[in-house]
Write a structure and sequence with these properties.
By secondary structure, the protein is of the alpha/beta class. The protein folds into two domains: 268 residues, Spore Coat Polysaccharide Biosynthesis Protein SpsA, Chain A, CATH 3.90.550; 122 residues, UDP N-Acetylglucosamine Acyltransferase, domain 1 (3 Solenoid). It contains ten helices and 27 strands. Strands 1, 4, 5, 6, 8, 9, 10, 11 and 12 form a nine-stranded mixed beta sheet that branches. The N and C termini lie far apart (51 Å). Belongs to the bacterial/plant glucose-1-phosphate adenylyltransferase family.
Length: 422
């Protein structure tokens, strides 16, 4: 796979549905599971599948993503492996931004084709899943396909949010519809007994594609008005070419909005999580940080993930993810929350100075109550702060926080004064 396949990871657009987490960073750079970034998921899937050459295409707020990749993915000087950033750039031929997924690949193609490969694997940078791409590529080769689309069985309720496909007995895709609102009964597929028993009767595109090298070059050059794979390129290809469906039945979620992001993170605390981080065959790679072990004093913990370098003095933490360098004060209760942590420790001198001025420290203070919330990185939550998310709160965007689907998101670096109630 190392010689045959090149990976391309799409960094996504502005990520407005994940705002305010994407106000200062791109979607693939959003922290997940306390210590990773979203982009680590597709990169790790590639590395575990023997694909060691990857480009990450970025456009919006890419500085933190660039820094993360530069500090994380180092390979031997004697290896051809790389993970490189390709940012949107003005050229003589094109002076505009990426206009869609296909346009992003088209604009970067002159960099991509400078490498030798037979197949190109195109991935999204904002999905959570574990997948061996070798199986997909082998099926692509066996079927003599020009494109292979990874598909996942979904229910009728979920089908309206995805591109839905139909395939023949050889798994060749015969038709495609984008986010159908009516006539779903015409799009039922034979997804297998197990999937059908769960009501998952529709094949949805996962936004994961394998293209033959020359075919991709040709189809992108044929009509430069087509800017998007899902909406324009693939429907035309299905009519004209051999497009294979590769059905995947494992855990997969599209991190499209705050509620799905929140649910995916808290789902990791389940006794048997759908996404298994403790699988040595599907290791998740990320930046190696020289952090101390976490220190916990007087805290009742239940269904909680704690990353490295934390100092926890809370009275109770339940159904929560605590990110790197999280600091939580005494008598604080945290439930149903993702605390992202911080990028640095404050020195003892800084702490003394902040205390003398009555300022809040980085982290969460004493006697706080936090429920149904996401606390972004480097926040300073004072003492006696109450944050209680839920359906009783209306959605809105405020100076220090936003509310999305009842989830309170404290913005990166926000200073929440002592005694605040949200």
């Amino acid at each position: 796979m190392t010689d045959k396949v090149l990976g391309v990871i799409l960094g996504g657009g502005q990520g407005s549905r994940l705002s305010p987490l994407t106000q200062t960073r791109s979607k693939p750079a959003v922290p997940i599971a306390g210590k990773y970034r979203l982009v680590d998921i597709p990169i790790s899937n590639c590395l575990n599948s023997g694909i060691h050459r990857m480009f990450v295409l970025t456009q919006f707020n890419s500085a933190s993503l660039n820094k993360h990749i530069k500090n994380t993915y180092h390979f031997s000087h004697f290896s051809t492996a790389f993970v490189d950033i390709l940012a949107a750039e003005q050229t003589v031929q094109n002076s505009g931004w990426f206009q869609g997924t296909a346009d992003a690949v088209r604009q970067c193609m002159h960099h991509i084709v400078s490498h030798e490969f037979d197949y190109i694997l195109i991935l999204s940078g904002d999905q959570l899943y574990q997948m061996d791409f070798k199986d997909m590529i082998e099926k692509h080769i066996e079927a003599a396909a020009e494109i292979t689309i990874a598909t996942i069985p979904v229910t009728a309720k979920d089908a309206t949010d995805f591109g839905i496909l139909k395939a023949d007995e050889e798994n060749m895709i015969t038709s495609f519809i984008e986010k159908p609102k009516t006539g779903l009964e015409d799009w039922v597929s034979d997804t297998g007994e197990e999937m059908q028993s769960e009501g998952r009767n529709f094949l949805a595109s996962m936004g994961i594609y394998v293209f033959n090298r020359d075919y991709l070059i040709n189809i992108l050059n044929e009509n430069e008005e087509e800017k998007d794979f899902g909406k324009e390129i693939l429907p035309r290809a299905i009519r004209e070419s051999r497009v294979l469906s590769f059905q995947y039945e494992g855990y997969w979620t599209d991190i499209g909005n705050i509620s799905s992001f929140f649910e995916a993170n808290l789902g990791l605390t389940d006794e048997i999580p759908k996404f298994n981080m403790f699988d040595s065959n599907h290791a998740i790679f990320t930046r190696a940080r020289m952090l101390p072990p976490s220190k916990i004093s007087g805290t009742t913990l239940d269904k909680t993930i704690i990353a490295e370098g934390c100092i926890i003095q809370a009275s109770k933490v339940e159904h929560a993810v605590l990110g790197i360098r999280s600091r939580i004060g005494k008598d604080t209760v945290i439930t149903n929350a993702y605390i992202m942590g911080s990028d640095r420790y404050q020195t003892l001198e800084e702490i003394q100075e902040e205390n003398s001025k009555g300022n809040s420290l980085i982290g969460i203070g004493d006697r706080c109550f936090i429920n149904n919330a996401i606390i972004d990185k480097n926040c300073r939550i004072g003492n006696d702060v109450k944050i209680n998310g839920g359906d009783h709160l209306e959605d809105g965007d405020f100076e220090l926080y936003a509310v999305k689907d009842g989830i309170v998101v404290i913005k990166k670096g926000a200073v929440v004064p002592s005694g605040t109630v949200i």
